[in-house]
TrEMBL record:
The keyword 4Fe-4S does not apply. Its cofactor is Zn(2+). This is MBL fold metallo-hydrolase. It holds the Pfam family Lactamase_B. Residues 12-179 form the Metallo-beta-lactamase domain. Keywords: Hydrolase, Metal-binding, Zinc. InterPro entries: MBL_Glyoxalase_II, Metallo-B-lactamas, RibonucZ/Hydroxyglut_hydro.
């Protein structure tokens, strides 16, 4: 398993390429912009895209979806139904048809398994994706912080419950957030005020 991070779009959103070198299959996580650069990296790596995985539907995480659809016909775009229901506004722009995924679902990318954890709070349909030792946390958990809850559909209580759930996962994981730098779950348990508050709740 190989993971590459590409800061994309005007907000520098972290787009991740989850690659299985044994089968040359890949998934694109949160393509927020710069479709050409994403496609160029995938071509350079010799990867075939099997899925586009969205942690949530805010514009800065979906900005390249339409262009990727044109370049990758037939590749499914996965999104939680609670966010799919909000598509059509400025902050949740339309992106075309999506395939629903939800808590407990497992997808395959080559020989890799991606498990879906529903982690609402930043948006109602926010998910965290678990692949190997990596947690793609979207805008739920950041290094030293958490996602905003003052946008439409946000909930402070819900995101604390989601943080508590992540913090209670057994063992340690790479934390690969939608913005800012990567971290580890153990580091966040020790130093992230919001995660510590959630775990005390």
């Amino acid at each position: 398993m190989q993971i590459k991070a590409l800061p994309v779009g005007a907000m520098g959103t972290n787009c991740y390429l989850l690659e299985d070198e044994s089968t040359n299959a890949a998934a694109v996580v949160d393509p927020g912009g710069d479709a050409g650069r994403i496609l160029a990296q995938l071509r350079a790596d010799g990867m075939t895209v099997r899925a586009i995985l969205l942690t949530h539907a805010h514009f800065d995480h979906t900005g390249a979806v339409s262009e990727l659809r044109q370049a990758l016909p037939g590749v499914p775009v996965y999104l939680h139904p609670a966010d799919a229901a909000l598509l059509g506004s400025d902050i949740f722009p339309p992106i075309g048809a999506t395939v629903p995924y939800d808590e407990g679902d497992a997808l395959t990318v080559g020989s890799l398994t991606v498990r879906v954890l529903h982690t609402p709070g930043h948006t109602p349909g926010g998910v965290t994706l678990l692949a190997g030792d990596a947690l793609f946390t979207g805008d739920t958990l950041f290094q030293g912080s958490m996602g905003r809850t003052d946008f439409a559909g946000g909930s402070y209580e819900a995101i604390l419950a989601s943080l508590r759930r992540l913090g209670q996962l057994s063992g340690d994981y790479q934390v690969l957030p939608g913005h800012m730098d990567a971290s580890t779950l153990e580091r966040e348990r020790r130093s992230n005020y919001y995660l510590m508050e959630a775990l005390e709740g």
